[in-house]
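ok so I'm stuck.
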Amino acid sequence: MMRDPIEYFLSAEITLSDKLLEVLYLIIGLICIYTAIANLRDKGNQKRYGTFVFWCTLGLMFVLGPWIPSLYTGILMCVMVAVPILHRVSRGTQPDPSEEEAEKNYRKIGMKVFIPALSIGVFALAAALFTSISPLVGMGVGVFAAVIILMIYSRDNKPKVFLQDCRRMMDIVGPLSMLPTLLAALGSVFTAAGVGDVIAQMVSNVIPSGNLVVGIIVYAVGMAIFTMIMGNAFAAITVMTVGIGAPFVLSLGIVLFADALGLTLRAAMAIAFCLNAAWWALMSLPFLRSYRQTHFAARPERPVRESFRRLGRTLRDIRGQKHIFLYLLAFFFFIDGVYTIIEMATAYGSALGLDSQGLLLALLLTQIVAFPCALLFGKFSKRFEAARLIKICIAAYTAIALFAIQLDRQWEFWFLAVMVGMFQGAIQALSRSYFARIIPPEKSGEYFGIYDICGKGASFMGTMLVGAVAQLTGVANAGVGAIAVLFVIGFLLFWKAAKLNAARRA
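replied:
not stuck anymore, here's the structure
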């Protein structure tokens, strides 16, 4: 319905989130109009008039869409679509940044360039968790925060620079930028015409209710047809759908119809796993045919026997180097504690009353916190010894495990999510970096193979300890607290290994 803009923004019935979202649409529209004017003035663009019409029309739809009759919006959309159909839209001649300019900016900003990008996610998450404002609005606020941060980084980052970059990005995207608008309009038309209800009725008459196998097959076929109609822009969605859906449908079908096929449930499960293994092998054939390894050990006459011999020699070498041997033992214990906390997080969040959305946001919060903290610890590693930082991380995880003993409120879970994020990426990166420094460089492949075995091989111990303690005490939180034992053992072993390594270097 057509509204007066002043009445809309002054109305108490309209939420603040909707008003701010409309402001964001207005800004997007103005940027589109700027792109249109810039291309019109670009005499190097041979299709500048058509490009101007396209971007100006799209901008007007963002700016005036809610305030003009639907008929006029439809006319604008027809004009916008007609221009690229006639091949009258092209990219402008605005030059890209030179390699020298990019290198200069990198030396000036470095890894801090990720902080503005991170702010977008932080504001979106903050809006979703702590306000009634739409996360989309929070994302828009994050964009402005990123602009401010970039302007602080360099005085050269003036508003004109951001406008030029916006134009460059929109020129690259080109007519594909109208796909969301077209799909939204198409969805509105289908909804108004009742197409969805008709299709749902037709599908329900053909597909039995609750039949997942047939439903997934229809979905995959529908995605293929959708791609044929809409073009290659959606091909990736179809490929992923088929790649995931095909083995899933086959496996699920065998398990669900095991009785009809004369199979036991165990046999059906075995066949399903074999089918997935065969699918992996089949899909790997193109990779095996095209991939060529450039750095490798020469193939021996008896590869199996020689592989075990090399493994034995590597283990003897490690056993003879006590600082490496003790470090791997330490890593075995403390990294298992880290993995156990990550694996048990969802279970404890659910026990505290968090729904699936809350758990997803908690995991997202952990990753958002982990990213800048990993960069921060990278900076610290240049000023402090990696051994000291690893000790700090192990001590922090010990405190996290002990704090979890009394965990009974949601805010405590969120607090732990932040704490885990602060040290998760750091301890993994620092552990691998430290190991690379203490091993012989010429045998790094063999040594890191043992390193990964220690990391993955320890995955059973933490969960077993949590389950055993929880079963014996009848208190689930006590099981998580028991993980602290792994960190204490890991800390003591690492302290000894670091001491031996320091003595060896001295």
